[in-house]
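Example record for the data management plan.
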Amino acid sequence: MPSTFRRPGFVCTDHFLDVPLDHSAPDGPSIRIYAREVVAPGKESADLPWLLFLQGGPGNKAVRPGASPAAWLPRALRDYRVLLLDQRGTGRSAPADRRTLPAAPAEAAAHLRHFRADSIVRDAELLRRHLIGDRPWSVLGQSFGGFCAVTYLSIAPEGLREAFITGGLPSLTATPDDWYRASYRGIAAKNERYFARYPDDQAIARRIARHLDASDERLPTGERLTARRFQTVGLGLGHSVLFDNLHYLLEEAFLPDGRLSDTFLRGVHDHVSFALQPLYALVHEACLCNGTSSNWSADRILAGLPEFDPLADDFRFLGETIHPWLFEEDPALAPLRECADILAAQEWPALYDRDRLASTTVPVAAAVYYDDMYVHREMSLETADVIPGIRTWVTSEYEHNGLSADARVLDHLIGLMRGEK
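Corresponding structural encoding:
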């Protein structure tokens, strides 16, 4: 019997379902996935259309009602019964980390070959049939969740009534190298914007990097903080709130005697540790492979960009890039280094079917953020050109986290879908 609880504004019901680890071998090993049904109080028995939410990531669990930033959720509950899916490997859906994955690197890598968008979509299809039978449902995909929505349109469009996508139209043709060349240009642009807003932070960040190069400063988990790992606090530069929070972190960096403060080291740890989302680091590049391998693409491209050297005269933060040395310096990732190397060398099957996308009849509405640091506008619009009838909204009003920050984003997309915008 599903468990239900109430809190102000939400009625939540738990759902679990056993699904194949490998959907091409349905009689093989299975995993248990979890999803939380959310409905507005008083609408528990209403015949509402279902909206599946696909979280950004990869490797992030779904939002928790009332505990995670999700401005879109109350707006969605006006019209839908929402299903918050913990994508496989996250949250309560067979979490994948150093404690749960097989100890043998080759076995762990073989397990993780089934943790990309194609498997997530097939999980969703089994959930749909389990919950509502043959009725199609709507999908809302944020960032990587949007990538999953495009995979959904490619392999199981019959399951979809409509698709909303925010900051998540993937390229159908770019290699990982193409993707990261564009990414570093976007990261450099966000650095310029950041240091233009907080010009004194350039000297502070440069001082921190040089201090870390010369001194042994330890994070709360015991490992030494290096200058290059400090650069990765820039992952949040494409989010409106985290952009400014970085400044508040830097302004408390140093003690009067020149050492780094515990406040700063604790804050840096919370930014740079992958303990809460190791799957993100393990399969991030794999999720950009559409019939290719990555071979540590972000790190290879970075090697040709001396302006990102942590000791360069003009300091630059890194962004959404994963590097092999993270699996040496982060205790949450270190046991998975050999597994990560195997995954980086893996040639991955295609995630998108251009012909099926070009013939889809599923209505699609998509928000494309003009200066998105994570998902590139030009590539997104090239993909939009392939999907017939897509209603695309290009906006400079929001950063990548617009959906979670402002209910008007989803409201605008719903209006587009209904012909009201």
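Summary line stored alongside the record: Residues 176-345 form one domain.
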